[in-house]
Every structure is written in structure tokens, then in C-alpha cells.
């Protein structure tokens, strides 16, 4: 069974992805783009924000350069959406901000007897596409929540703490009261 490589197998410090340059034009392109794992990017009742009934905003922000895989975003989305829906009854908006464009590749290596005669090593090491990732810079938002009251904010903060282990790098949660923002204008 094929399993995912650890996330540290892919460089987290690079912000720009590697692009293959070849003498033959056809070899400069990735042949297959993996399917998108993220099903929805916006959940909850979006019409409540227009009516001004969701005045509290929480933003989950990345504090360092990271590559955030699409399967990690989807697992966080499923967990948070399930918990928020059961606790708040749908009176929230939950958005996923980054879109995974970067295609991650893997150069599979054989192991065992006779493997040295069957593979090319690093000679043709461009690799096959294995997944997608969003390349995040410092201070990039990952998730945005619009919530109804202080109790919902406390609940969402507690659930965000539980998903920290699913996300790479360090994150921070920013809070903003939209009622105070609109009264200043």
C-alpha cells in the first residue's frame, strides 16, 4: 500500500517551487495534476454576515514559511466544520483561504535485491506528482471564522488548539470585533 511521505521530505523553507527546465520542451511539464481533496472552501450560513449577525472574526495565521498540503487542510476542515456545526447549529461562517496550486513530486526508489539494476537513481529524478500544497508566507491567513458571540469564540479557539498538530509550522489566532471596526467609519 502506498503511503504519504513525511512533510519534511519536501522543502518548507523554499517559497518558490522548482520548475524543470529541459532541452526537450515536453519534459518541462508535469503530466498529471492530482485531484483536489478540499471539497468546500466556505461553510456555514453566508447570508448572516451581510445582515451583521456575525460580529466576531477569528483568523488562523501562519507565522512562518510553510507548505500546507491539501490533505491536511481537508482533515482540519472536516473536523472543525463537524464540531462547529454540532455546537453552534450552523450560525457561523468558516472559510479556507489558501488554494493549493503547488504540485509535489516524488522520485520513487526501489529497495531489495536487484533494485540497483532497475532504477536510474538521480539521473532522471523529476518525479511523479503525489499531491498538492499551498505555499504560505509569514502572516498568511489559513482559516477565517465569523462567529455570533463570545461563547462561540471561546469554543472555536479550543477546537483550533486541537488541530494545531495537523498543521505544519507555527500558527497564531487573531481576534477582531467587526462592530468596533464599523463604528469607527
Give me the count of strands. 8
N-C termini distance: 58 Å
CATH architecture of one domain: Alpha-Beta Complex
Poorly predicted runs are none
The topology string of helices and strands comes to EHEEHEEEEHEH
Q: What spatial form do the alpha-carbon principal axes imply?
A: elongated
Mean pLDDT over the full residue set: 83
What order do the strands of the largest sheet run in, or round the barrel if closed?
1-4-7-2-8
User: What is the alpha-carbon Rg in Å?
Assistant: 21 Å
Approximate strand percentage: 25-35%
The number of distinct helices, counting runs of at least 4 residues, comes to: 4
What is the CATH class designation of one domain?
Answer: Alpha Beta
Fraction of residues in H or I helices: 10-25%
What structural class should be given to the helix and strand makeup?
alpha+beta
Amino acid at each position: 500500500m502506498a503511503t504519504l511521505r513525511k512533510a519534511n521530505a519536501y522543502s518548507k523553507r523554499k517559497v518558490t517551487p522548482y520548475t524543470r527546465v529541459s532541452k526537450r520542451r515536453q519534459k518541462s511539464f508535469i503530466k498529471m495534476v492530482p485531484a483536489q481533496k478540499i471539497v468546500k472552501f466556505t461553510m456555514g450560513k453566508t447570508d448572516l454576515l451581510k445582515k451583521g449577525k456575525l460580529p466576531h472574526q477569528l483568523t488562523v495565521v501562519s507565522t512562518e514559511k510553510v507548505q500546507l498540503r491539501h490533505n491536511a487542510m481537508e482533515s482540519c476542515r472536516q473536523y472543525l466544520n463537524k464540531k462547529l456545526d454540532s455546537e453552534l447549529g450552523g450560525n457561523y461562517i468558516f472559510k479556507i483561504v489558501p488554494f493549493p496550486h503547488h504540485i509535489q513530486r516524488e522520485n520513487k526508489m526501489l529497495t531489495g535485491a536487484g533494485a540497483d539494476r532497475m532504477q536510474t537513481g538521480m539521473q532522471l529524478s523529476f518525479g511523479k506528482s503525489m499531491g498538492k500544497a499551498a505555499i504560505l508566507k509569514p502572516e498568511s491567513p489559513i482559516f477565517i471564522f465569523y462567529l455570533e458571540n463570545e461563547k462561540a469564540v471561546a469554543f472555536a479557539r479550543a477546537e483550533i488548539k486541537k488541530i494545531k498538530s495537523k498543521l505544519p509550522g507555527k500558527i497564531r489566532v487573531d481576534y477582531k470585533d467587526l462592530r468596533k471596526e464599523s463604528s469607527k467609519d
